[in-house]
Amino acid sequence: MMxxxxxxxxxxxxxxxxxxxxVTLLERKGLGYIQIRKGPNKVGYMGLLQPFTDALKLxxxxxxxxxxxxFLVYYMSPVFSLFISLLMWVxxxxxxxxxxxxLSMLFFLCCLSFGVYSIMVAGWSSNCKYSLLxxxxxxAQTISYEVSLALILLSFIILVGGLNFELFNKYQESVWFIxxxxxLAFIWFSSCxxxxxxxxxxxxxxxxxxxxxxxxxxxxxxFALIFMAEYASILFMxxxxxxxxxxxxxxxxxxxMKCVFIAFMFIWVRGTxxxxxxxxxxxxxxKSYLPVAINYLMFFVSLKFFIFIIYS
Length: 312
Known about the structure:
Number of domains: 1
Subcellular location: Mitochondrion inner membrane; Mitochondrion membrane
Order of helices and strands: HHHHHHHHHHH
Largest sheet: none
Radius of gyration: 20 Å
Number of strands: 0
Protein name: NADH-ubiquinone oxidoreductase chain 1
Pfam families: NADHdh (PF00146)
Shape: globular
Membrane topology: Multi-pass membrane protein
Keywords: Membrane, Mitochondrion, NAD, Transmembrane, Transmembrane helix, Transport, Ubiquinone
Helix content: over 70%
């Protein structure tokens, strides 16, 4: 049984990595048309092979290492980042022998917190002031928005009465949760943008003042791994949004159509919105999103208590 689970997980990882390649192509095409220009269209039919040639170019380039960097930690942090991004996929409620377990929500929150360390260590180990500043900004931003994500998830834990993501499929057979908690869906989506360091919350990669942020010193394979980890996280957050709010079973084709739409919304936001100011970002997290998440949590607790009183 364990061997079957491992084989299934390896197949899942391969599918995720192929999906990451085509999401990068979707982003470049989408941004191209948003900016009234063509995206990649030369390599293969309509540019379909462009992501694979980019990956080949990145992984065959000669890596550069800073003399003053902490070599081992510097080298391992992109690997750890991609590992955490791929490990989170086991929590999705598949029914084909994957590692689905009862405490999947807690496992997701633990993996989400571990992602902070890879960014922090990547910025610190480079021994570059731009990388360190980008890493510090990313850590502060990620921790701030994790609070709202955890409170929203806690609200739904109370609502469905368990810590397994499979319960969302069961409880959304009749009505999607987005219809009863649209503000929470909006907060969850924008917090996912902040968690994955995407526009308009990409302060860890601010081009003007931080050169490229925490990954300034990375090139070739290290940069490619950080890039892949970011897009694997985007795909995972899109899938999780569908599981929590749009009520689809991952064994249905409709589930993947919704995932593509949510992933396209990540790209749409990048092509539309300018970058926030950093103080506005923190104000949004602590003064706007946190009170709404706490109020919804109190509402769900009261609702559950009221139902318990009625039926007891």
